[in-house]
Design a protein that fits this description.
The chain has six helices and ten strands. By secondary structure, it is an alpha/beta fold. The strands form two sheets. An eight-stranded mixed sheet has the order 3-2-1-4-5-6-10-8, sandwiched between helices. It has a single domain, classed as NAD(P)-binding Rossmann-like Domain (Rossmann fold). Strand 1, helix 1 and strand 2 form a beta-alpha-beta unit.
């Protein structure tokens, strides 16, 4: 299977690419002009989007069977960033998938997406825009999975001791998770048929019982 990854140069996106390569997928990276890729994924097929010299998103997705969306607005003085990146850009990606007959999409969103009263909303109401991005995907008719990770961290020293807590929509409001485990969860979602048309919230710590996504989904109250 050929999987496309948008936001592949980001801190989560490049880890998703590494995990996809490790899992044996053919990987296509979709990045913006001036994005920089780490050496670990520079050998992948890469398409650069742009208004003039870059390719179109439709062209970049052509021939792919699945898409992992790891794009997300970065903290900035531009408070319109979340609306542009976490909603309008998700809409564009969804419509492009439909035109290219790409059916399987995994979206990395955020814990508390849609919640109004939250400190993160000081940055351009980001959680509200993330929820609208989710809704655009949910209404698309595609085979979608939304992953909502807790607070992201870079810690990879004790990954073997960290167990993921998988839960359904609006069941977790706090907690954190290493970006590496988010990336692994993206690949697990692609392999887990039961994850289709599910919102899955994920955090991790050493106290969580060891499980996998498929087993956890069977316990969701949906």
């Amino acid at each position: 299977m050929k999987v496309a990854i948008t936001g592949a140069s980001g801190k989560t996106g490049y880890r998703v690419a590494e995990e996809a390569i490790s899992a044996g997928y053919q990987v296509r990276l979709i990045i913006r002009t001036q994005s920089k890729l780490p050496d670990s994924i520079k050998g992948c097929e890469t398409y650069v989007l742009g208004n003039s010299n870059g390719v179109s998103l439709d062209y970049a997705l052509k021939g792919c069977e699945s898409l992992i969306i790891a794009t997300g607005a970065r903290p900035s003085i531009d408070l319109t960033g979340p609306a542009k990146v976490d909603y309008l850009n998700i809409q564009k990606q969804v419509e492009s998938c439909k035109r290219q007959n790409l059916k399987r999409v995994v979206l990395v969103s955020s814990l508390c997406a849609g919640k109004l009263i939250h400190p993160l909303n000081l940055f351009g109401l980001i959680l509200l825009w993330k929820r609208l991005g989710e809704i655009a995907l949910q209404k698309s008719g595609l085979d979608w999975t939304v992953l909502r990770p807790g607070g992201l961290n870079e810690n990879e020293d004790k990954l073997k001791n960290e167990n993921i807590l998988f839960s359904g929509e609006k069941t977790q409001e706090e907690g954190s998770i290493p970006r590496r485990l988010v990336a692994k969860s993206c690949i697990e979602a692609l392999k887990t048929k039961d994850s289709i048309k599910k919102i899955i919230e994920i955090t991790s710590n050493e106290e969580n019982p060891k499980t996998n996504m498929s087993k956890a989904i069977k316990t969701f109250n949906i």
